[in-house]
Amino acid sequence: MNNRFYTSGLALFLFLTLSAGMVLGADAEPASSRWSVRPLSEVARHLAPELDRDALAGEDMDRREQGLPYRFAIPEEVSLTPDVAGTWETLPSGRSLWRLRINSPDVLSLNLGFTRFWLPPEARMLVYPAVGGGPVQVYDESDIAAHGELWTAVILSDDVVVELEVDPALRWQIDLELTSIGQGYRFFGEDFSDKSGYCNVDVVCEEGDPWRDEIATVGVYSLGGSTFCTGFMVNNTAEDGKPYFMTAYHCDIRAHLAPSIVVYWNFESPTCGQHGGGSLADNQNGSTLRVEYETSDVTLLELDDTPDSAFKVKYAGWNRGSGVPTSAVAIHHPGTDEKSISFENNSLTITSYQNNASPGDGTHLRVADWDLGTTEGGSSGSPLFDQNHYVVGQLHGGAAACNNNLPDWYARFYTSWTGGGTSDTRLSDWLDPQGTGAMTVETIDPLGSSFEVTPVAGFETSGIVGGPFEPEEMVYTLTNTGDSVAEFTATVLDNWLTVAPASGSIPIGGTAEVTVGLGASASNLSAGGYQSELQIVNAGLGAGSTTRPVTLSVSTNTGAKPNPFGYGDFTETNIYFTMGKAATVRARIIDILGRRVKDLGSMHAVAGANFFSWDGRGQDGALQASGAYIFILDVQGRKERISIMLIH
Fold it and tell me: Residue 257 and residue 288: Cα distance in Å, rounded?
């Protein structure tokens, strides 16, 4: 879910700046700014326990030595629902208002985890600082995810209000349980007494100019409201904008924790060398685990939503080959501070993790020492780009710092591609969903020359040998969803298909149509099932490239043997038909005046030969009179007829 931040009261004076696209409105205003409600002093409060700062400092030192993810908050486990906590009241509008105040004195931030989140229509939930103004986070039914959870971005306050406004008739539909309160004892992003190393290079600096597309793929994220790492959006061979987000296994994302991820985009210094002043306003929450493989320290998530278009996030290209980069660039969030860029101008080596010998077990790429910049805690999971701007791995660990020339190790994309040999331990199933075998994929800008293709269904048609076939064609609509003109090409894989147009342009906000149909050679096909594919490709760098399956089922004309029947030993007839693919069919007998004689019922016909039998009797079991009858076979809405002669 792409979180929406709004301001109420004073503008932020701490470190969080608002993005230019934010809009103020009534939906972002707490009830107290619109109605006369109980003062916050009378709203039920939950007081979190005091933290032992000395003990936490010692634990953090141990965590750093063990290479564990950077921790900024301690979650308090709770079970708070509108039924057992908070305060209800009725607004002058007649709607019901529930508020809960959460306080953890002297912490630097709070974040909330709802492991049950369901709101009825037109209900809305706000989360905002109790005092001093600040950003208001707004949630409603559009934020309901399949996993049923919702985790908020950090709120820079030690006193927070959760507010819910709902139609009283729908209160029974609310399913809301707050189970985690993240107490931030370390700053995330903007503690100037604890900034990342002096040698880090802000991505806004001119050194980052050749890497603008890659910079836009990287984000910093929190997990479980407690720890931070770096990750990045990654493209797939379908280039369909599927929101895959890649990071490190050792950042401890597991299936049950994947919904708790909150990704912050564009957390960058506005001025080169500032090492500060970034904004956390562009964020989204929620994901599903797709891949985890410890050997190559890889985790692949599918985010609940594509990043908001205002965030201008791009999807990184990759190289899954076994080659060794001749130089490398890292883009990361050192110490979870503003995004930085680091450069290695020499060739890397293939090694084992934390081993200098080459090739070792071949699972990692070793950066001997950074020529410009470095990495730090919080950089874990960040992408390593080769000299051709392809991702070749993600940061596992190392000892690099501003005051040394020590190495870092990146787990290889090459190893992660086949991983542990199953769909949940390798990247190939997700990043090459159609099995193209591609070795490289380019970085894409889903907001550039991008389009969406509808419908998502494939083209299915059927008929008898020689035709006709129904339906004869299918039309796909391409809608430009980007901010520039999109160019496309359309091709089919077999000569019994046609497609038009073969290429074209789609204006910004406009549409184009691509029609796939059956060519003349389809009438020459013998009975059977045929499968092909329509390919629609974005000719630019944006998203939208996709495929649609095409299925053609060709069956033979029905035939009855014996025909005529009803005399001697030929007391029944079998009506044969051939199917190109398995399907449910229905058959019945009528007389030449169209009156129903007998319903032969339905059957699940297999691909190949099938038949119905008729013994010359009607629905009531009585033997029918001699004469002509008609057998009707209903195949997926298409009716085939054959005349049958009954003779006594």
Answer: 9
Average pLDDT of span 94-113: 95
Banded pLDDT at 356 (limits 50, 70, 90):
very high
Which domain, by its residues, includes 635?
A: 556-646
Catalogue the long-range contacts made by 465-472 (C-beta closer than 8 Å, 24 or more residues apart). 465/525, 465/526, 465/527, 465/554, 465/555, 465/556, 465/557, 466/523, 467/522, 467/523, 469/518, 469/522, 469/552, 470/637, 470/638, 472/517, 472/518
Q: Are residues 305 and 264 in the same domain?
A: yes
Nearest of 345, 360, 366 to residue 410 by alpha carbon:
366
Domain termination site, one of 402, 431, 460: 431
Q: What is the CATH number of the domain that holds 324?
A: 2.40.10.10
Query: Phi then psi for 334, rounded to 5 degrees?
Result: -65, 130
Residues noted as catalytic: 250, 297, 380
3-state secondary structure 391-455: EEEEEEEECCCCCCCCCEEEEEHHHHHHCCCCCCCCCHHHHCCCCCCCCEECCECCCCCCEEEEC
| Digit-coded pLDDT (tens) for 120-155 | 999 999 999 999 877 899 999 999 999 999 999 999
Q: What is the pLDDT of residues 266-286, one digit of tens each?
A: 999 999 998 888 988 999 999
Give 561-594 pLDDT, tens digit per residue: 888 998 888 889 988 887 767 788 899 999 988 8
Strands (E) located in 335-390: 340-344, 349-351, 364-367, 383-386
- Are residue 153 and residue 75 in the same domain, yes or no? yes
Q: Give domain status of residue 196, yes or no.
A: no
d(CA 591, CA 90): 72
CA dihedral of 223, 227, 231, 233, whole degrees rounded to 10: 20
Same domain for 372 and 452, yes or no, is no
Stated length of the chain: 648
Task: With cut-offs at 50, 70 and 90, classify the pLDDT of residue 193.
Answer: very low
Number of separate domains in the chain? 4
> Considering the entire predicted model, what is its pTM?
0.70
| Residue 369 sits in the same domain as residue 455 | no
Residue after which a domain boundary falls, among 130, 150, 184: 184
